[in-house]
Amino acid sequence: MYLWRIIQVLSISTIFILSAMWILDGFQVFTKDKTEKVTIVKDELFGTDIEKREWIDDFQLGLLPDDPLLPYRSLAFPALICIATFFLAQYRIHSKVQQSS
Amino acid sequence: MNTLFLLTLTFSCITVPLFATQLGNVKGKKMVTLQNSVGTSIVKFISNSPLEKFEGNSQSLQGSFTLNADNLEQSIGKVYFPVRSMKSGLTKRDDHMYGKDWLDAQNYPNIEFELKKLTSISIKKSDNTGIEFTALAEGICTLKGTSKQTKAKLIVKYIPESDITRKRAPGDLVMIDADFSVSLKDYNVLGRGDIIGSKVGESIDLDIKLFGSTSN
Fold it and tell me: For the ranges A7-11, B10-14, B207-211, which has the lowest average pLDDT?
């Protein structure tokens, strides 16, 4: 029973950590593997601002995976697994309590 | 009858050049080639759909155009960029974008815009430091092998060669800011399932910045 309680705590913790990561990465729908670095430079000659853009490797967790074949690269898939694990643990704990009483 | 014909001809000869917009004190045809030494030409594409808004770009634009300084309306040119140079920040999405259902980079490696003429030209500034005008570029956009008449709003800045400009690149320098949008359906880009309209916008907005010089 103790083990199942630990599994429950781990599941909830994982959901919280992943949700926090998702929020910090900007609430994105899809996972991204690159981020765009934009540098604004003043162009005196043309009298305008010029954007210098470059892609840099940067994993950002999204609600859904970037690749359907890699569902774990998302918030939704691991969260569903953790929720299922939580309820499975709850069921096991409940069964054990009934057996012992 | 002959008098009427001569009058009409004379009137045409006087009025037609009057409608031609001139590029300040610049004379003749100026061939402008895109050059990174002047600035990095970039095309930004923006997709706005209910599920996600995303942006990407290509910085591999090539091409040239001829500004007819005596008659700006008659300016022509061609600008293109490789489909595979388009990046959106998601490698898997980029791979899909290059695929057969989307832009089919293998069979149609480039996206092109051919300028046929300029209309609605309005000179905003013309002095020693340069000339600035707005215009509507009318031409043909070719995407995935389909060509369509397209209009793009332009802001053009033309800077005649000087000691200052030579520090960056030889020749007269030009910067063009262009905006237009393309409807994916018009170019037979249908995607898979119902992705267009949910994950990808039905039309894509293009924001283009071009830098070139009259020196080859």
Answer: B10-14
- Residue A17 belongs to domain spanning: 2-33+61-100
* Class of the CATH domain delimited by B21-213: mainly beta
In a domain, A21, yes or no: yes
Tell me if A27 is assigned to some domain. yes
**Which pLDDT band, with edges at 50, 70 and 90, does A101 fall under?**
confident
Taking CA atoms, A22 is separated from A26, A73, B2, B107, in Å, by: 7, 11, 82, 38
User: Is A32 in CB contact (< 8 Å) with chain B?
Assistant: yes
Phi, psi of B10 (to 5 degrees): -60, -45
The answer as to whether A43 is a domain residue is no
Q: Hey, are the CB atoms on A34 and B89 less than 8 Å from each other?
A: yes
Q: Which residues pair with residue B141 across a beta bridge?
A: B113, B148
- A57 or B27, higher pLDDT: A57
DSSP state of B70: T
> Could you write out the DSSP letters of every residue in B179-210?
EEEEEGGGGT---STT-BTTTB-SEEEEEEEE
- Shortest alpha-carbon distance between residue A62 and chain B (Å): 11
Domain count, chain A: 1
Q: Where are the domains of chain B?
A: 21-213
For the entire predicted model, the pTM comes to 0.81
> Is there a domain that residue A55 lies in?
no
Contact B187, B144 (CB under 8 A): yes
Q: Do B157 and A46 touch (CB under 8 A)?
A: yes
| ipTM metric | 0.73
